[in-house]
Amino acid sequence: MTIATHPITAKAHTNIALVKYWGKLDTQLIIPQNDSLSMTLDEFYTKTSVQFLPELATDKVIFDGEELSDKDSAKIRTFLNLVRDLAHITYRAKVETKNFVPTAAGLASSASGFAALAGAASRAAGLNLNRRDLSRLARRGSGSATRSIFGGFVAWQQGHDDETSFAYPIDEQPTWDLAVIALVLTAKQKKISSRVGMQLAVETSPFYVEWIKASQADFETVKTAIQNQDFTLLGHTSEQNAMRMHALTLSSDPNFTYFNADSLRAMKMVKDLRLQGIPCYFTMDAGPNLKIICQGADAERIAQHFQAVFGDKQVLITRPGSGISISD
Length: 328
What we know:
Blueprint: E1 8-19, E2 24-26, E3 31-32, E4 36-53, E5 60-63, E6 66-67, H1 74-87, E7 92-99, H2 109-124, H3 131-139, E8 153-157, E9 166-171, E10 178-183, H4 194-204, H5 208-228, H6 231-250, H7 261-275, E11 280-284, E12 290-295, H8 299-310, E13 315-318, E14 325-327
Parallel strand pairs: 5-7
Antiparallel strand pairs: 1-4, 1-14, 2-3, 4-7, 4-8, 5-6, 8-9, 10-12, 10-13, 11-12
Keywords: ATP-binding, Lipid biosynthesis, Lipid metabolism, Lyase, Nucleotide-binding
EC number: 4.1.1.33
InterPro entries: GHMP_kinase_C_sf, Mev_decarb, Mev_diP_decarb, MVD-like_N, Mvd1_C, Ribosomal_Su5_D2-typ_SF, Ribsml_uS5_D2-typ_fold_subgr
């Protein structure tokens, strides 16, 4: 095992959860309360370069061109400690990362961010992890990052400890024509983080146990939909799963929501399109921005429908994306 003598760069794409992870069984190891399933997206990604250097007294983290303070880089430095422990090294690291995702706005920037960091940092430290172990490592930074190691449709096995909780591919290169239209209704950071929101739901929502049961059933349904290339079943189940997750925020104490007025308007527009015979479904993570799941042939006209209301720059078409790439 040899520390790299030059920066190692990794590129990882974000993902949208079709069956959500919302709540941790183990907050330290980030073991989820249920299995989840996602689609990796090709349009949104993070590129991160890492080099461990003997002359550094502390980790240096540069995010989108600006060096982060110790406070703002604390989570990254904690993650780098995990890598150092695995590699049995003590060198501090220089990290340069660029996000091609609106940060903390419900488009899973932490997923692509920590997946890319896991890939670049582990290789820079001299580790050569297989994808399962890379998925396990990424999970320690952000739960959803465990799925961004793989492309296409990806499942996250709940597991019960660090060894057994990891992601695995369901269909890395889907052959059916699918698209996702991302509505960036706001790029502002959300007021309640996913971590805080999850914990509130686990501790206070009276419906949480039923959510887990419903999500496990949704997981099997979406897997079947993928195997059969059943778009209607995939879309309907994903939309229902998202709304049930957001019902947990409304039933928590104190209650809160990630919706804003534009979120509600866009949801109605999706439902109206379905009534007009244009099949499409929405999903939402912990933020106000909708992702509209549709068939590729319908993507342009659906996008134009939303561009007329929200503006051209707020509507982005993306498709299933690839897994992590690491370049020496």
